[in-house]
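To: structure desk
From: M.T.
Subject: fold request, one chain
Message: Could you run this one when you get a chance? Sequence is below, nothing fancy, just the single chain.
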Amino acid sequence: MRSSLLFPRIKHVRAVRTPRPDLSAAGRTNAQCVPPSDSLVEYAAYVDGKKIHALGIVDALELVREHNAAEEKANAFVWVGLHEPDAPEVEWLAEVFALHPLAVEDAVKAHQRPKVERYGDSLFVVLKTVAYLDHDVLTATSEIIGTGEIMAFVGPDFVVTVRHGTHCPLTEVRERLEDKPKLLNRGPTGVLHAIADHVVDKYLTVADLMQTELEDVEAMVFADVSARDIGRIYNLKREMIEMKRSVMPLQSPLATLAQRRMIPSEMREYFRDVVDHLARVCEQVESSNELCNSVLQAALARSNALANEDMRKISSWVAIMAVPTMIAGIYGMNFDHMPEVKSVFGYPIVLGVMALACTLLYRGFRRNGWL
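Reply: Done. Structure tokens follow.
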């Protein structure tokens, strides 16, 4: 949902700090006169598993907090989704939701390692996203793996997701949760679990596709007629390393996330399930990476073997041609006393000796596998 009632006017001056928004009725009125934000994907308040539209983010947050204050079980929250936002927008949200400035800086700059950090009563989670890019033929310059990032601020009554890159949109996750109010009743940690599960499921899909790609390359290397294109195999190896860098560092932070006190006890088993899926992905990526190393080494060895075969063929033909060249060179020295020089059959005899020697050499090389 895009709206012109989202962000207050922010002065793009670093020396001036934006004041904390007023959550009173007057403050909400002022917050409505705002320019549109191209980075905002959608925002909404969720109360009792139902989506409630609000005039603005501040209004939605106040609505949620009023509901949670009146209910024993606080399950209402606000979910704000951004895609590659500018610094002023994230800084304004930091004022609204009391986000830590260090986490805000990481969310704006992106290119962070997967991690889970706690700032007060909120969590800052960084997830690397991967996507398999379609291509007709694998070449030395093909891009196979596309990467991005999803950063989530998770508090008692809010979730702010910041996505970098065009891969792995969260629209599917939001729609699936909205179709099942029981899942939304889990609160912000339920949203975090759904996002993490969605990202890890994408890991599984990409890992399976990469495994298929690797098997095709392996079959090509050991085919009877090899293209001997080491560049394509090295490109696949480079893409495997890129995926390994995205997947492997997430294993430890995600494992500790299930043990944090901020995660409700009823949600911990769900996070442990995601950790199990991630462990499977890591094992598959590690085994595929090792197999890719073996395929690369086998391709280099086969390329050297094919080069040696070519050299043996060339050397064999050089040896065969050396015999008539040597005989012709001897008879070209113009000495008077040379065998069969004065004979009528001397010329045919010399040609026959050349042909016989070349035939014997050819049969010998052929029998030894050089030709």
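Reply (cont.): The first strand starts at residue 40 and ends at 47. Let me know if you need anything else for the meeting.
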